[in-house]
Fold this protein.
Amino acid sequence: MSVKRFLGVIFLLTLPFGLWAQNVHQQIREMERERFHSVDRGLLSKSDEANRSDFDVTHYRIQLDVDPYARTITGKVTTKAVSKISGLNEVTLDLFYNMTVDSVVSNGSSLDYTHSDNEVTIPLARAYGKDESAELTMYYHGRPLTGVGFGSFNFGFHNGKTIISTLSEPFGAPTWWPCKDNPADKADSVDIVVTVPDHLVVASNGTLTLETDNGDGTKTFHWAERYPISTYLVSLAITNYERFTDYYRHSETDSMEVQFYVYPEHLAAAQEDFNVTVPMIECYASLFGEYPFIDEKYGMAEFAWGGAMEHQTCTSYGSALIRGDHYYDWVVAHELAHQWFGDLVTMKRWSHIWLNEGFASYAEALWAENIGGEAAYHRYVKSFDLGFFPTSVFVHDSTNIDMLFSRTVYDKGAYVLHMLRHVMGEASFFNALRNYAQKFAFGNATTEDFRSVCEAEFGHSLDWFFRQWVYGFHRPSYEYRWSDSPADGQHIITLDLDQVQTRTGPFKMPLDIVLETASGNTTIVVWDSLASQRFQFVMNGEVTKLQIDPDGWVLKDVQFIPTSVAESEQPRIFTLHQNYPNPFNAETVIGYDLPREGNVTLDIYNVLGQRVRRLVEQVKPTGSHSVKWDGRDISGEILPSGIYIYRVRLNETMLPARKMLMLK
């Protein structure tokens, strides 16, 4: 999925492309979840069942008669597959309850089937050997569901004219055609043959190979997709379209047609808005590699929905986005980028959806950089920082639809790539993007696959980066103070840097330290990974200003603490300090800082997790406090030597535990 963040109503925005403010992204990207609650979440786990994983689909031929007046379809879908085991004797395809199966046929013979729980189970006429091909055709009819995901299959009107469209992500395809609805099982090819009243035009995936007037008031459109494709990317868009074209010239002698299907009343506005498409293709091809579906087309088809969807070779684009003033160029950029990241390389499992959405969102910033330079790029990236991200980029629970399409996946996912660019360096990062697209072209990938490509290009492990930014939570919060001490004609700059976040441990990241002098700015990159760290630099002139990562290469909070204030003011952060001395013998001191008055408890535990002593249990005022421990338990008995754990709670806030070693 891509820019499906406009559900029903489009917010009125006030900034041109490249200048989107933080509140713009926040408004748009928070609108994306409300239609998911009617989905059967159990469908996500079915793809691993034996009668699904034991065969690989190679081709679908989808034949539909669409009746826009009755809002029904009559279908015939032929599925070709290869057995992955010896003795395949049963297959299961997904098809929702709203569709009625009329018959299933293979090699001219009817097959039995059961249709329940939104799936059709079909015993085969014989057992198929490993690598042997099988083919079956299902005949069915019914009224497609419109309430699954973002709509799945919709009948509507524009300007009094019929508009029919599909949007199957994440698992709405079986509401209108039988398939193995697993993003990791891409069909090698798909034929989409659709018959409609003859005043309508059908836009779909791949190449239009035939348009036939049937002489009975209907027309049949035959679209052929000859590149591998996931089921959720198969689409239809049907109305009284006006068509216009542009061309992407990918060599001196060859070009690819770029096709646009728009409402007649929006033709002039669309011709203006979409004239950026070819320059965008040129930009992304230079960054990611050649446009993936170069032998077919790139297309955009207007439909009656608030956002857009990256259907392979034929993006569905919301009618409310067409204004004729380039207001939504970033949506065009996002959907186009999905042709590489989402369509060419598709996440293997829904938990890894950031490989689609985070990448496409980041590509918006790359387009901003292409047209506006480095400053525009950094402004755009900063708009991804919406403040608190409550979840991880990797969706640990893929049955949680809210999390699959959350702003964390889109915006923090994009920021992850921005940070990775700084960690790896320009050349290595963009080489990795191209290598990733090439290595997994027309297939599927996981986060680990992407990481391995990055590590191969970078030459070092990036496990630490992915653990804290993709699989982990939160962000670093830095506080710093610095001083300039003249010495022998030079200046010793001392920087004290603390990570004061309480919900997670220290982050390891490179930080740009920008030192301003009368002769100009000097940038020094330091690697920070500790709760408290001191850095010193030697400068030839007086430093008048020191900044931590002013360009925002790290997703962070940062605050400068003047030395005079830092020494005198009350604590502002709830902090538990390391005991001292450590190791200790007779007694040790444990310190903690309270930013506010509250009820404090401080407990000691042994390595088995058993509490052996409570040192503090009372209301304490704001300030710095300490308490001594003499190594005795609650009964006054001296405890044996070993490791002990201590932790402190202020009201309902519990800090991470610390360890200490007692030696007797």
In short: The two ends are 61 Å apart (CA to CA). Confidence is low (pLDDT under 50) at residues 1-45.
